[in-house]
Amino acid sequence: MMIDHANRLLQSRFSLDGNVLCIGGIPVTEIAKQYGTPIFVYDQSIIEANIARLRDVYSDRFDLHYSIKANPNAAILKCFLDHGCGLEIASGGELHQALHAGCSPKRLIFAGPGKTIQELKAAVQAGVGELHLESIDEAVSLDAIASSVGKKIDVSLRINPVDGGGGAMRMGGQSSPFGIDEECLDEVVERVLSLQNLHLEGLHLFMGTQILSADVLLDQYQRGLQIARRMAEKINRPLGSIDFGGGLGIATFSKEAPLDLDHLARGMTDLIANIDADPLLSTAKLIIEPGRFLVGEAGVYLSSVTRMKQSRGKTYAVIDGGMHHHLAASGNLGQTIKRNYPSVVANRVGCQAVQTTEVVGPLCTPLDTLARKAELPAMQQGDLFAVFQSGAYARTSSPHGFLSHDSPAEVLVHRGESRLIRRRGAAADFLRDQAPASAEETV
């Protein structure tokens, strides 16, 4: 079944003022006039609705931590903190961003396979609530740091199962830089237990991303419980926490159906009952750490048409944004074959599609294409092109420095009002950020 996700989002997430797209009730023409383009615009009400929905699905038995790699803007982090969520971080930079946003260190989970000694020291100094270890080497390093400051650190082990991976990008069930192989679990647990400055608190699993099947998620959770029981038996005491990871996907392409949350909720009821009936697991804090699912559909990338042109039978709309701001929408962030993100001509929504158009950016590469063979209304200079599903892995996963164009601004809409949450970065900023090449240049 083919799904028109642009229309789905228009009906469920956004609204129209005549033929003009509205975000949080504000016409994009007004947003573009006030802040300029290209720009990322986020609707906070969508984020809040997603938080509430996941809490319905997972119940109050689960602690919700937002994975800030999806979108680390401070205003968005503050939204999650205001709604009682913790944060999941994976670098020293994200640690700084989380603390700057006002997150209590105890509400932080620090994961990731490449933590440096400096990052581990910073996490210990800050008092991060739980560190997730992905190798014996990391455990030994952390133990030495903890010893040097006289602290005992709560840790969980990220385990890479022998099976159970899934989603658009598998991160478990195969050879991987992520986590500790399940077949090494017993010896690793014994080694960690021997380290005097670490307290083995729990288990962390993250087996895949962009998962759109409730059954795949439930199978992974059941697999996680098997490993959790094995770990609890090995340490001969109940686990303190079980982090089931994230991976909840959002349907973006025409052959993808949205994740069935009702089916997931029914399965979670049975899963939680099994956990609560097990003495070794019933007192554990249960954690999920989604990112994309919470913010992806809240964001729209908005750009302006600068030129229309014809070339050898094709129509091109050249816009002022492109892959340097939204690499994922260009198809250059993991796609083998370019597929279009849901998009509309934002000031001509509902107008008849009369031509097949290539929507391209200003960069000097044919890879800078945000929509290929898109059926769109006739466009002209000044029209607004909107890319949906742009709230996650968009701005921060893109090469802003390419051709030294300005970096895009970000705006948050909430309760009918908009505010700038990241200024537009001028091309001159790149020069200011560079170290001088010689002493003479410091004059």
Automatic annotation (TrEMBL):
Enzyme class, spelled out: lyase
Residue ranges of every copy of the Orn/DAP/Arg decarboxylase 2 N-terminal domain listed in the record: 47-295
Pathway involvement of the protein, from the record: Amino-acid biosynthesis; L-lysine biosynthesis via DAP pathway; L-lysine from DL-2,6-diaminopimelate: step 1/1
Single annotated GO MF: diaminopimelate decarboxylase activity
Protein source organism: Aporhodopirellula aestuarii
Cofactor (UniProt): pyridoxal 5'-phosphate
Protein name in the entry: Diaminopimelate decarboxylase
InterPro entries: Ala_racemase/Decarboxylase_C, DAP_deCOOHase_LysA, De-COase2_C, De-COase2_N, Orn/DAP/Arg_de-COase, PLP-binding_barrel
Catalytic reaction equation(s): meso-2,6-diaminopimelate + H(+) = L-lysine + CO2
EC number: 4.1.1.20
Keywords, sorted A to Z: Amino-acid biosynthesis, Decarboxylase, Lyase, Lysine biosynthesis, Pyridoxal phosphate
The keyword Transcription regulation is annotated on this UniProt entry: no
Similarity comment: Belongs to the Orn/Lys/Arg decarboxylase class-II family.
Residue ranges annotated for the Orn/DAP/Arg decarboxylase 2 C-terminal domain, each copy included: 41-391
